[in-house]
Design goal:
This protein is of the alpha/beta class. Helix content is 43%, strand content 16%. It contains 22 helices and 16 strands. The protein has helices at residues 16-22, 42-46, 50-61, 67-78, 110-114, 117-127, 143-152, 171-178, 194-211, 229-232, 237-248, 268-278, 295-302, 327-334, 339-352, 359-366, 376-390, 396-408, 429-435, 444-455, 461-464, 482-491; strands spanning 4-6, 9-14, 31-32, 90-93, 96-100, 133-139, 158-165, 185-191, 219-223, 258-263, 283-290, 304-306, 354-356, 369-373, 417-421, 475-478. A hairpin with a 2-residue loop joins β4 (90-93) and β5. α1 (16-22) packs across α6, α3 (50-61) crosses α4 and α17 packs across α18 (396-408). The termini are far apart. The structure holds pyridoxal-5'-phosphate. Pyridoxal-5'-phosphate (PLP) binds next to α12.
């Protein structure tokens, strides 16, 4: 049996289904595996359609699920549930390509993974004979929350609690979450930023291990954040899909490199690209694009990770993050699975707020990764210029990536470049409309309509209908209260209001 192990301790192991159920390793590390132990023929994968690719890749990463079960889960998660029949279409834009990841039920790329994660959890519960209720805890910088709520709503055997930073999400993102329906969902605003919410969630996991926080409640915790390997694995699929599309259109010959530019926050999406590369896909460079919270740009250029810095609220809120969880997995993979080093660096980060990696490790990382950042002003200018030059409407996160693509273009010469487009512009309608220097109504739904009239692109139905929904989830708590909140919710699981 293929075993995952904690990035901090090789003895802390879990089967794929156990890793999916636990979310995070008991020692606070993330479940990972040495990709050298996995075998995948990328050429074979690239001959398939999206659904076939998903079955193949997920089958290799999560081999505990039977082929039949995987087929069933992939079909149920994607067939007919995305507005694009090939799920993640690749479209040309100027001299690059946009990988459109936002055609799912909540209009953000998180849908690709969160449409299938609840099915993994249900299947894993059966395999492991889990009879306790699975309680999903999720911290969100805006988009994960809604996609997770939608994915887990009314899934038998599960309950989900989402924590979002009280003033760190867009008005539309907030409305998406507070109006969520379903009898097993709870949503609370946390006074603080995303890092506070994410740290709070991680601490609750540790408290459960060490202080038996939820003892006797007949629940077991899991996570829908990209710390969960079941959330990360589906994100590899669209890298293969983009590569296969370029091959089909004869833009590349099989084996030619393709570069990817990724708007980055928690480092999950771009890490999936690195894993795809580890599994053989001819990925050229991976470009990590950050907003003004450029902690990753600093790390990838200097080898020093320092979170002791000012936190900025930006117009790309889903990337307002100073503690990027999945960087831990990159350190693990790029160091040849050196869990001692990872444990040491993570301890330094916790105790001192910073760490530095050895020069050879940095060099190894820099062979693949480039990085750049872009502030709100440049983001707005990018939205305007890409609309005017290429007639493509970018959301602020995608615009950050496009701007960084333009900054790094020279270093990327020679091979086609794919920019990951992570959200519908309508999720951030006021910011996008004002970037176009168009008169901007005060109310966000009015902005959606004007933006649609200006661009000729229809508003996705899931966003248009939000206007008429009544908020149901108005809890607002301090970050210190998160553990008690979870304890209270776990004490009585009947959340039917
Ligand atoms: C979550 C998110 C990102 C960042 O992805 P990570 O996996 O956290 O790096 C970028 N753009 C949008 C729209 C997002 O929702």
């Amino acid at each position: 049996m293929l075993l995952y192990s904690s990035t901090r301790n090789p003895k802390e192991t879990a089967s794929p289904a156990e890793a999916v159920l636990r979310g995070i390793a008991p020692d606070g590390g993330l479940y990972m595996i040495d990709p050298a132990r996995l075998s995948l023929d990328w050429r074979e994968v690239c001959a398939l359609d999206f659904y076939g690719m998903a079955e193949k890749i997920l089958g290799v990463l999560l081999p505990e699920f039977s082929e039949d079960a995987m087929h069933r889960m992939v079909e149920a998660a994607y067939r007919g549930r995305f507005a694009a029949p090939d799920v993640t279409p690749l479209t040309p834009a100027g001299d690059a390509y946009l990988l459109e990841l936002f055609h799912g039920p909540t209009s953000a790329f998180k849908d690709v993974a969160l449409s299938i994660l609840p099915r993994f959890i249900t299947e894993a519960r059966v395999l492991k004979g889990e009879t306790r209720e699975t309680l999903i805890l999720t911290a969100t910088s805006g988009d994960t929350g809604k996609a997770a709520l939608e994915g887990f709503r009314d899934v038998p055997g599960t309950h989900i609690i989402v924590f979002y930073p009280s003033d760190g999400v867009s008005a539309i993102q907030r409305q998406q979450m507070v109006t969520q329906e379903g009898d097993n969902v709870a949503v609370a605003a946390v006074q603080g930023n995303f890092d506070d919410a994410q740290t709070g969630v991680k601490e609750i996991f540790v408290k459960c291990e060490e202080e038996h926080l939820l003892e006797g409640k007949n629940v077991v915790l899991s996570s829908a954040n990209s710390i969960n390997i079941g959330r990360l694995a589906p994100q590899l699929v669209y890298y293969f899909k983009a590569y296969a599309d370029l091959m089909k259109e004869k833009k590349i010959a099989p084996g030619d490199p393709v570069h990817f530019v990724v708007p980055t926050g928690n480092f999950g999406d771009i890490l999936a690209g690195y894993l795809a590369r580890c599994l053989g896909l001819p990925v050229g460079r991976l470009v990590c694009a950050s907003n003004k919270n450029d902690v990753l740009t600093e790390f990838l250029t200097t080898g020093r990770y320092d979170r002791r810095r000012e936190f900025f609220k930006t117009e790309s809120p889903s990337m307002d993050i100073l503690i990027s969880s999945n960087l831990e997995r990159l350190l693990y993979l790029a160091s040849g699975c050196d869990s001692r080093l990872v444990a040491e660096k993570m301890q330094e980060l916790k105790e001192n707020g910073w760490y530095e990696v050895p020069a050879p490790l940095l060099a190894k990382i820099q062979e693949v990764f480039l990085a750049g950042s872009c502030d709100d002003e440049a983001t707005r200018a990018t939205i305007k210029s890409v609309w005017e030059r290429h007639h493509r409407l970018l959301d602020p996160h995608t615009a950050v990536a496009w701007n960084v693509y333009e900054q790094t273009k020279e270093a990327l010469s020679g091979a086609p470049t794919v920019v990951l487009s992570t959200a519908s512009p309508y999720k951030f309608a006021p910011a996008v409309l004002s970037s176009l220097e168009h008169p901007t109504p005060r109310e966000e739904f009015a902005c959606m309509e004007v933006l649609s009239a200006v661009s000729g692109i229809p508003v996705p139905p899931n966003l248009a209908k939000l206007r008429d929904l009544t908020p149901r989830h108005l809890d607002c708590i301090h970050k210190e209260e998160m553990a008690d909140y979870v304890k209270g919710k776990a004490g009585s699981l009947d959340w039917n209001r």
